[in-house]
Amino acid sequence: MSIITVERKVLEKNDEIASKNRELFNTHKTFTINLVSSPGSGKTSIIEKTLEHFKGRLNISIIEGDVQTDLDARRVALYNVPVVQIVTNGACHLEAKLVQDALSRLDLNGVQLLFIENVGNLVCPAAYDLGENMKIVIASTTEGDDKPLKYPRMFLNASVLLINKTDLIPYLKCDIGLLKKNALQINPALKIFEMSCTNGEGIRNWCNWLETEIAKRK
Amino acid sequence: MSIITVERKVLEKNDEIASKNRELFNTHKTFTINLVSSPGSGKTSIIEKTLEHFKGRLNISIIEGDVQTDLDARRVALYNVPVVQIVTNGACHLEAKLVQDALSRLDLNGVQLLFIENVGNLVCPAAYDLGENMKIVIASTTEGDDKPLKYPRMFLNASVLLINKTDLIPYLKCDIGLLKKNALQINPALKIFEMSCTNGEGIRNWCNWLETEIAKRK
């Protein structure tokens, strides 16, 4: 019983700080995405492809979340964008307070798009609001078509699903039609994009949609 | 402060029950594996290939852990082995108590090998002893070669690493030599097998090793 109470308090406190983060994002008209997925689904690769597509035409910043290492921050820093790495030291998800701390080291003035790359985990990050405008979940074709049914909360809380690694479909048993059907069964409002960071398929569509979302905030 | 105390109590209680589970496994000479990985790395496929390889020559039982659905239990039940599904209802890992409950529905008499398939999560299950003889972690080639560095606790706590989906290497940027090097940097004692459930490569080696481990318990 005491655990539940403590957990509830932790979540209430988290939501309070998340609201403050959200206020900050809205004040600066920064479209903020909480990018979530299993380890190795392609979160960092999709950020890289997005940075490459916009090549300085958009003002983008990144917050990287990892259990250990700053490998991802070093990857995206090559694109000359502001990046802050959060190392959770074992914790399985980002919390609003960690993002708040990272924001003290980022200047949001003029930032049109902020990616928060969460820890690779299809369960725990679903429960924590960071103040983002939307959660975007990545499912790669190599993970199979049943993941939305097995990890429903993440797909329920996301606004957009990115199906990544479409270039590998010829070599897999993954039924992409069934993957979409399963995702929409959990969350009929999900917007879905298919893409491959290897051959570039679908990156333009995704970036066009991002531009539309950013334009709404002008 | 109170959170830490509650968490410590939870872990102490978990370890107590895990010890009882372990005693039960040892009494029955049941070699018990806690199979852990990201979602979609191939935990269930590797169990299926193992069942296929031993085709009734070994007495095998399965405990399936999932956040939602009994899809995995239904898959392995096709091989006519005893299987119990644990649905965690949102929890991100199995705990010893859930396994203890599942064991009340399994007869371990004569069972030589028990797979406990954990929730797909490369972070949280690392912290929970279920009473298993060893944790075995799967990393699939599609997840990239940096995962041991980014999720070190899981690779540190595992005794064996199964590198799955080797058939996809020609289509990926994954450097399997680097993946092994990174894994051994975290845990130099890791035993490593490479395999593919699609073309069957490496399944025999893995199963031969399982037989040796089981023979030790006779």
* Largest interface summary: A-B, 37 and 37 residues
Q: Residue share in helices of chain A?
A: 40-55%
| Biggest sheet details of chain A | 7 strands, parallel
Uncertain stretches of chain A: none
**What is the C-alpha radius of gyration of chain A, as a whole number of Å?**
17 Å
Task: Please work out how many helical segments of chain A DSSP would assign.
Answer: 8
**Which strand order do you get reading across the main beta sheet of chain A?**
3-2-4-1-5-6-7
Determine the oligomeric state from the structure: homodimer
Estimate the global geometry of chain A from the Cα principal axes: globular
Notes on the structure:
The structure is a homodimer of 218-residue chains. With 218 residues, chain A is of the alpha/beta class. Helix content of chain A is 40%, strand content 18%. Chain A contains eight helices and seven strands, in the order αβαβαβαββααβαβα. Chain A has helices at 2-27, 43-54, 71-77, 96-103, 147-150, 152-157, 176-186, 203-216; strands spanning 31-36, 60-66, 83-87, 113-117, 134-140, 160-164, 191-194. Chain A has a seven-stranded parallel sheet, sandwiched between helices. In chain A, helix 7 links the parallel strand 6 and strand 7. In chain A, helix 1 runs parallel beside helix 4. The longest helix of chain A has 26 residues, at 2-27. The radius of gyration of chain A is 17 Å and the shape is globular. The termini of chain A are far apart. The model of chain A has no long low-confidence stretch (mean pLDDT 95). Chain A binds chain B through residues 2-3, 6, 10, 38-40, 66-69, 71, 90, 92, 119-124, 140, 142-144, 146-147, 149-153, 165, 167-168, 171, 173, 198, and chain B through 2-3, 6, 10, 38-40, 66-69, 71, 90, 92, 119-124, 140, 142-144, 146-147, 149-153, 165, 167-168, 171, 173, 198.
